[in-house]
């Protein structure tokens, strides 16, 4: 599907489907829309009245236009109230139009959307992102899909002539989101530690990034006992991925993105039981997927920021070689961990990834992890938990969240709760009591970052959408890529 830009007046547009966005407090047809309604023999007014269209955010109505008019169908989409108008409103409205256009078998859609904040660049980018993310469909694993995908070939943004750079930027970001979706959606017999490393190699090769893959022996030499403890029972070799984007001139900032990369989480010997969602645990590399998706986007955008993309990738399996519940592991910073639950494996892999990243001497580290069910209980499926002792970094991420529409909510890093991780025999346990389980998980991670401003995002909820939700789902959302790109590009 291609996005095109046009300065054709709305009244002159001819083609398959015309989509018009309207605010909730302004569905009456004035000015250009009144003339258009006249040209369409009053069909807009009729459509609004018959369908009781009020312009509620993301609501859509559509109709067939009579044959003597050079437009086949009309879609109206609501933008909600003007005072609640955000950049995300445009993204979601564009997504809603995309979905209706797909159902209506539109081939060409003309979009008449208002500018957000008088900013044609930000507006065009958001619209292009929304429609492409909404129309993406994954048929890789169907031999003969019932739903062959959308037939939309062209989306024409009316009044956005000259915004090629914005569309280009949207395409770069969308390519990263789609990579992340594909990695998360693919099952564990398709995406493995080996293929994750290959994907990273491919990104490095395609876009000229530096790459280092640490093999098991390399990780042993670095003393990564926590990561390797998790990897023990897998028949597949663990892979520690370190991709680096370096700009040509001196970077303004040096950042790291670290992703949890469990290509499958069985729970280990504390195996996940019935009703635990074990069959969905291919998603447990969602942090690593967002990391690689962000790498793909940032490598194309080429900002003046150095970015390290890091993931310790393995599976959490069972076998005679598996770590036993109660085993004591030593992480690469020398700290000892009593593994009182083998299902709290993500924090073990992240411990060594964070120690490694902390030594790079960067300005900030953000990790993303499908870390705890407790975070999903606290914040639901749409919102990631943000845990950081650093208010400035929290502010940067909150800003990126509001611009990208990928929601986060800051949670407390209540130091007192670390008592729940005290061990009688080692430096700490890997699992605390059930209450506050996402907070103790974050406090555990904090033990492995000494020198670098750090934030942790628990993305166990938003990596996956069971139902259709705006431009996401059903299925893998690619959550995190747009948030991370926005953060890296911010001042
Ligand atoms: N990968 C899971 C967390 C998870 C849960 C991700 C639901 C996505 C959806 C993680 O490794 C895990 O098993 N966490 C345990 C921790 C517990 C043993 C302290 C959990 O949340 O139950
Ligand atoms: Mn687990
Ligand atoms: Zn896990």
Quick structural gist:
Keywords: Aminopeptidase, Cytoplasm, Hydrolase, Manganese, Metal-binding, Protease. The chain is of the alpha/beta class. It has helices at residues 31-39, 43-50, 87-103, 120-135, 164-185, 193-207, 216-221, 225-231, 286-301, 346-358, 373-379, 391-404, 437-446, 481-489, and strands at 2-6, 15-22, 60-64, 71-78, 108-112, 154-158, 210-214, 239-245, 254-259, 261-265, 306-316, 328-330, 336-338, 364-369, 384-387, 408-410, 428-429, 454-458, 464-465, 475-476.
Describe it.
This protein has 491 residues and is α/β, with parallel strands linked by helices. It is built from 14 helices and 20 strands. It has helices at residues 31-39, 43-50, 87-103, 120-135, 164-185, 193-207, 216-221, 225-231, 286-301, 346-358, 373-379, 391-404, 437-446, 481-489, and strands at residues 2-6, 15-22, 60-64, 71-78, 108-112, 154-158, 210-214, 239-245, 254-259, 261-265, 306-316, 328-330, 336-338, 364-369, 384-387, 408-410, 428-429, 454-458, 464-465, 475-476. Strands 7, 8, 9, 10, 11, 14, 15, 16 and 18 form a nine-stranded mixed β-sheet that branches. It has a six-stranded mixed β-sheet with strand order 1-6-5-2-4-3, with helices on both faces. Helix 4 (120-135) runs parallel beside helix 5, helix 8 (225-231) packs antiparallel against helix 10 (346-358) and helix 9 packs across helix 14. The two termini are 33 Å apart. The mean pLDDT is 97. Zinc ion (ZN) binds at residues 262, 265, 284, 345-346. It is found in: Cytoplasm. This is Probable cytosol aminopeptidase. Mn(2+) 2 binds at residues 260, 265, 284, 345.
């Amino acid at each position: 599907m291609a996005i095109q830009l046009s300065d054709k007046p709305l009244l002159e547009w001819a083609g398959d489907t015309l989509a018009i966005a309207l605010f909730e407090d302004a569905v009456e047809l004035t000015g250009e829309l009144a003339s258009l309604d006249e040209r369409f023999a009053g069909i807009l007014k009729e459509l609004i009245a018959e369908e009781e269209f009020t312009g509620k955010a993301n609501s859509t109505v559509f109709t067939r236009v009579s044959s003597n008019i050079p437009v086949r169908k009309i879609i109206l989409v609501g933008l909600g109230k003007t005072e609640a108008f955000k950049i995300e409103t445009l993204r979601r409205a564009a997504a809603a139009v995309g979905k209706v256009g797909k159902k209506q078998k539109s081939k060409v859609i003309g979009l008449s959307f208002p500018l957000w904040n008088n900013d044609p660049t930000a507006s065009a980018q958001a619209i292009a992102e929304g429609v492409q993310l909404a129309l993406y469909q994954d048929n890789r694993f169907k031999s003969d899909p019932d739903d062959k995908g959308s037939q939309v070939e062209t989306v024409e943004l009316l009044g956005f002539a000259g915004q090629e750079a914005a569309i280009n930027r949207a395409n770069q970001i969308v390519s990263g989101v789609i990579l992340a979706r594909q990695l998360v959606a693919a099952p564990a017999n398709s995406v493995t530690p080996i293929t994750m490393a290959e994907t990273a190699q491919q990104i490095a090769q395609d876009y000229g990034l530096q790459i280092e893959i640490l093999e098991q022996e390399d990780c042993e030499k670095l003393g990564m006992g926590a990561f390797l403890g998790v990897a023990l029972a897998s028949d597949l070799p663990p892979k520690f991925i370190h991709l680096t984007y370096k700009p040509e001139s001196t970077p303004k900032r040096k950042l790291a993105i670290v992703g949890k990369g469990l290509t499958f989480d069985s729970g280990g010997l504390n195996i996940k039981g019935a009703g635990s969602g074990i069959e969905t645990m291919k998603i447990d590399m969602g942090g690593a997927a967002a990391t690689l998706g962000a790498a793909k986007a940032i490598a194309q955008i080429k900002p003046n920021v150095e970015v390290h993309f890091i993931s310790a990738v393995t599976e959490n399996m069972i076998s005679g070689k598996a770590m036993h519940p109660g085993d004591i592991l030593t992480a690469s910073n020398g700290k000892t961990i009593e593994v009182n639950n083998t299902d709290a494996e993500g924090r073990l892999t992240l411990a060594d990834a964070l120690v490694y990243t902390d030594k790079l001497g960067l300005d900030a580290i953000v990790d993303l992890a499908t870390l705890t069910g407790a975070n999903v209980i606290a914040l639901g499926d749409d919102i990631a938990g943000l845990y950081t002792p650093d208010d400035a970094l929290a502010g940067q991420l909150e800003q990126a969240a509001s611009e990208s529409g990928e929601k986060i909510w800051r949670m407390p890093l209540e130091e007192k709760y670390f008592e729940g991780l005290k061990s009688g025999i080692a430096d700490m346990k890997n699992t605390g009591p059930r209450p506050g389980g996402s907070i103790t998980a974050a406090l555990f991670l904090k033990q492995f970052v000494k020198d670098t401003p750090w934030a942790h995002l628990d993305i166990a909820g938003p990596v996956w959408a069971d139902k259709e939700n705006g431009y996401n789902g059903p299925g893998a959302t690619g959550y995190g890529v747009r948030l991370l790109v926005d953060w890296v590009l911010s001042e």
